[in-house]
Amino acid sequence: MAKDKYISILRGINVSGQKKIIMSDLKVLYEHLGFSNVATYIQSGNVIFENASENIQDLKNAIETAIEKKYNFIVPVNVRRAEDYRAILNNLPFKNIDIEQEGTKILITFLSGVPEESDIIKLQEHVVAPEKLVLDNQVIYLHCPNGYGKTKLSNAFIENKLKVTATTRNIKTVFKLCELSGV
Fold this sequence. Notes:
- The protein has 183 residues and is of the alpha+beta class.
- It has two domains: 4-85, Alpha-Beta Plaits (2-Layer Sandwich); 95-171, 2-Layer Sandwich (Alpha-Beta Plaits), CATH 3.30.70.
- Helices cover 36% and strands 25% of the residues.
- The chain has seven helices and eight strands, in the order βαββαβααβαββαβα.
- The protein has helices spanning 23-32, 56-71, 82-90, 99-102, 117-124, 155-162, 171-181, and strands at residues 4-10, 36-41, 46-51, 77-81, 106-111, 132-136, 139-143, 166-170.
- The strands form two sheets. Strands 2-3-1-4 form a four-stranded antiparallel sheet, sandwiched between helices.
- It is globular, with a radius of gyration of 16 Å.
């Protein structure tokens, strides 16, 4: 049976000493779940793996359950096919941007579901120029020229407004995940 390549990103681990997970341990946890060719990238919980399952929700549930069982805390996990990451990059709405210079100021927020239109409108009211926010299905593209640390548009803020789980990575990380996964 052919295996698909997936990328999972974990929300809120290894931040200020909270929810500490060592990446080598996370790799072993994924392997114990039956995933193959498991690789991690940096300490924020980015994992590339292969699995024959086509049910992303089952993969997500298995990872979240295994993490909770091993570490005794809950970590939201966003799982997508590696090729979906490439499509997300190809749809980047911000043009003429130097990724090397602004790679940490351009972010992609991965949502757990499609938000309600009324909630999207409420969120847009909080975008302050020169910031830009473009929502495309279950992805938010953010451009924060003053830095992500200075914007109100954090994961917690987005989750509160859109009523879905949000996990954000900068564009440099997303490019690297695509490179490492071969897409």
